[in-house]
UniProtKB/TrEMBL annotation:
The lineage of its organism: Bacteria, Pseudomonadati, Bacteroidota, Bacteroidia, Bacteroidales. Signal peptide: none annotated. This is Glycosyltransferase 2-like domain-containing protein. The chain crosses the membrane at residues 237-263, 269-290, 302-324. Residues 4-131 form the Glycosyltransferase 2-like domain. The keyword Cytoplasm does not apply. PANTHER family: GLYCOSYLTRANSFERASE, GLYCOSYLTRANSFERASE 2-LIKE DOMAIN-CONTAINING PROTEIN. Keywords: Membrane, Transmembrane, Transmembrane helix. It comes from the Bacteria.
């Protein structure tokens, strides 16, 4: 068997149903599916039973330990030459495995990953969040974009690796967040061939509202500092930009307040200060609005993308600054936020 899909699940039976349905329509069928239920209170076993006679599917239930350890649990029971790790909230286009096959035939790879996109059925909020997580203007293109500020690191929503290399590296670490980047860093440090497969993309639902999205990116900011403590060389300029954005926006907010206070005393001076404080945010918002509106062909999604972009950059930036103060300045141990509610 060539491929083993490994999917950790936590309280998401409806999403698993969509993912398994998409696997039924793959043009290639040399694969198995391993679903690992990570201590869910809303299990997906009934969903998996629906596909038991149509897919080579194994379902396992285990105590909650986080996605990384659940992937390791599935990998230990996999039979494929390549392990393909997916998040439960993705859906595969029918040509996904064909694209993987073609890339591996063109040039061998020990590990690989693909980009993600928003499906037309996603809500406007989901499409706005997808834009924010994939746009060059928010992430620097490091998640698989054509333009990028750093090399591509496969992420766990769409990551493939040779089974023997997975075992050699010991699988995912016990990090609760950022464990996929940790794994990718170890792949590169082992000097293995790791590539982006541009056509092996997935539809990725991500978070369904901005509150959940904030929690996700806040933990991503914390995880980046945790990764820096393990691998100092992994911290790049692009990872500092959200923190710089957060600090800069805070300073502009203080300047705005000063300008508004100044207006009754000196209208012209106060107005100049106020406009100078508002201009950077307005210019950036306009850029996001135009780019997202063109890409999504929707002014509404373009407007929501402004909120998504600010949520992403401020959430990541606040998490990063918090972790930097606690771990680098105060010397505290590795930590994360929203652990009890992150997956709900």
């Amino acid at each position: 068997m060539k491929y083993s899909f490994i999917v950790p699940v936590f309280n998401r039976p409806d999403e698993v149903d969509e993912l398994l349905e998409s696997l039924l329509h793959q043009e290639k069928n040399d694969f198995e599916v391993i679903i690992v239920e990570d201590g869910s209170k809303i299990p997906c076993k009934d969903v998996c039973d629906k596909y038991a006679d149509r897919l080579p599917l194994q379902y396992f239930f285990k105590e909650n330990s986080g996605p990384g350890q659940s992937r390791n649990y599935g990998a230990e029971r996999a039979k494929g030459e390549y392990l393909i790790v997916l998040d439960s909230d993705v859906v595969l286009p029918k040509g996904y495995l064909t694209a993987v096959d073609e890339e591996l035939a063109r040039e061998p790879a020990d590990a690989f990953g693909g980009p993600d996109s928003a499906h037309e059925s996603f809500t406007p909020t989901q499409k706005a969040i997808s834009y924010s997580m994939t746009s060059f203007f928010t992430t620097g293109g490091i998640r698989g974009g054509k333009k990028k500020l750093d090399k591509f690191y496969p992420r766990s929503f769409n990551m493939g690796i040779k089974a023997d290399l997975y075992a050699q590296l010991g699988g995912f670490s016990k990090m609760r967040f950022g464990e996929d980047i940790d794994f990718s860093i170890r792949i590169f440090k082992a000097e293995k061939r790791c590539r982006l497969f541009p056509k092996a993309w997935v539809w990725h639902k991500r978070r369904t509202d901005f509150r959940k999205f904030w929690r996700q990116v806040y933990n991503s900011g914390i995880a980046r500092v945790n990764l820096y403590k393990k691998y100092p060389e992994s911290l790049k300029l692009v990872h500092l930009l959200p923190a710089a954005f957060t600090i800069g926006l805070s300073m502009l907010a203080l300047t705005l307040i000063a300008g508004l206070i100044q207006i009754p005393l000196s209208p012209s001076t106060g107005l100049i200060i106020t406009l100078s404080a508002l201009s950077p945010a307005l210019i950036y918002s306009t850029l996001i609005l135009i780019d997202s509106t063109i890409q999504n062909r929707s002014l509404r999604i373009g407007a929501l993308s402004i909120l998504a972009a600010f949520t992403q950059l401020l959430g990541y930036g606040c998490g990063f600054i918090n972790a930097w103060c606690k771990r680098i300045l105060a010397g505290k141990e590795e930590f994360a936020a929203y652990e009890k509610t992150f997956y709900k």
